[in-house]
Structures are given as C-alpha cells and as structure tokens.
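Troubleshooting log. The previous structure file for this entry was overwritten by mistake, so regenerating from the original sequence record. Sequence copied from the archived sheet and checked twice against the printout by T.R.
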Amino acid sequence: MTFAVNLRNAVCFLVLAWAAASGCAAAPEDPNAVAGGGAPGPYPRTGCAATPTQPIAPGGYYVNGNTICTADGRPHLLHGVDRPSLEWQPAGDGLSQADFALMATWKANVVRIALNQDFWLAASPLRDPAYPALVDSSVAWAEAAGMDVILDLHWSDAGVLGSCAPETGCQKKMADQNSVTFWGEVAARYHNDGRVMFELYNEPHDIPWATWRDGGPVDGYQATGMQQLYEAVRATGAQNLVLIGGVNWAFDLSGVANHRIDGYNIAYATHPYDVGGRTPSTWDHNWGYLTRTDPVVVTEFGNATGSCATAYSDALIKYADSYGASWTAWAWYPGGCKFPAIIDDWNATPSPSGNVVKAALLGYD
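Regenerated output below.
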C-alpha cells in the first residue's frame, strides 16, 4: 500500500500540481466559453437505431452520434470504477475474483483496468510471461460479476522497451511505436469480446493537438498519435469501442472538433481533478461541449488535494449525469485521500469520496 500511495502521489498528482503552479496547466483564457461556439449544454441525445449503424464486436456496443448503443438499440451509459496496480506491478495488488465481486455490490457496470505495455510485450526486459493471463483473468472476473471492462494503456516507455522503471512512474507525454504493437496484440486478443473496450493512452500532456492526433517528435522520441493507435486496433478486425483521452493530462478535449480522429465507435475521455484550474466553470469549455456530438466518458476524477473533501466528486457526477456523460471513478485502491481512493480497505469500505461514488452507482437503474 505504501508503495502504491507514494508512487501515485509522486508521479501523478504532485506532477499535476507542479504543472499548475508553473503555468503549463493553466485554464483557458475564457474558461466559460463553449469550445467551437454555440450554446452551453446539456444537449439532446442522438439515441439509437433499431439495428446497429456501425460494426459491432460480439456482445458489445456501437456509437451513434453522441450515444453509446447496445446491439438491440438501447442507449447505454458506463458507470463504474478504476482499478489500478497492473501499471506498476505485473502481478497487480489485491486482484482477485472476490475483489471484482465487491465492485459489483456497488452496482458498477464497468471497471477500467490500468496496464503497462512493458509488462505485456515479449521483447521488453520487463516482460512478465504471466501478465497477459492475469489480464485475461481480470477481464473474466469482471464480466462474471456483471461488469464491462475498459483496458487502459496507462504507462509506456518513450519508444525504448524496458527504459522506464515502474517504481519511478512511466506516464510519458504521448504514446510511442511500442504502443502500436501493444494495441495490435491486445485488440487481436479481445476482438471477439465486445464487452472489452480500449482506452488508447492514459494522460497525454504538454504536446500540441497536431502531435496528439498524428504523432511527432517529443522529448527525443517519435510519439505516436491517437489516429495511428486507433488504426492499430482496427487493423486487427476489432470493432470494440475505443476511448480517446485529450491533452493536458487528458482533461482538455477542446481541440477535438478541429483534430477529430477518423473512425467509428469512438468515445472521448476526460480526467477532471480539482487541481490546475479544473474547476466546474471550465468543464463546458474543456469537455462538456463535446457531449453535443460525441460520447464522453470521464475515465478518472476525484479530489487530488488530500483533504478528503467530497464536493468536487459530487458536482462532477451531477454534471456528467446532466450532460449524458459516462464515468469511472479513481480509484478502487485503498491508498487514502491523497491517492485519491474510493475505498479504505480491501473489504470495500468506502472512503469519504467513495461514499459519494457508491451512492451514485446504487442510484442508477
């Protein structure tokens, strides 16, 4: 537990706080303006056709306008939790069938599982031969508990396999060519299971929108853009839903309208935390506006200040509900308020923010 807490604090949220203090994560000049113009939301749902309008993986979903749809034409929202540890430890921490069953007692319908490409890829010095099988087991445990799965490429290696020690944190600015190989293998493995969705890269940051979409030089390596990662998935024949996070540590989706990923069955992901000017007044500009045209999934959110305050998470869930956005809460891991955790122990005792998340999950039909 101490390792995980220190790792997440040092690598993620303290970096976010530093970025905010240094100005590189500043809010837009007009944080209340709707990106692309137009009136603020909420916006009407496109809804679903009686038969799929896009290819669909077995048992999975397709996207119609701003709506995620089931094969039989029902709108579907994802509401669940994030399950970390497979990004920093190839054996995970506390992963078991009982753990996923406890998530289901909160009525989560999806779990987002963080992964590390260097534990997966055979050519990596950090490769663990048991890692893919453990991911398989985690998917099976989640589905047996009634939950769908988002597989999230959380950490990478700047194009050099084994170059990033997991204990130091491996959230690079953008994906790399090894990420293309990773998604080719993962998508091929799960292409017949539409209940598995793919989040292409956890938290792009400090890159321009053109690099985000199409790749380019970043910190001495050649970054791979979201378009190429998406195409790596589709090249396998996988029609699974694909989630794509924005820039500024995945919070900012304001540039998507002018840098849209070409393809289908795409939802966009955002990570609002209460640091770096990510106040509710900025949500319309950074991601709320996109719910007018596309499905948006808040794949991480929480109170990153360590205060255990719950107002931010409560406001986020209410905003997402009103805008028709899906969400998964960070994190199902007993790491304390600084993590921030939604459970206090492996018995699923809710933390203060966990009480908010659990109440919201139990309130959905």
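Confidence is low (pLDDT under 50) at residues 1-29. Archived copy saved in two places this time.
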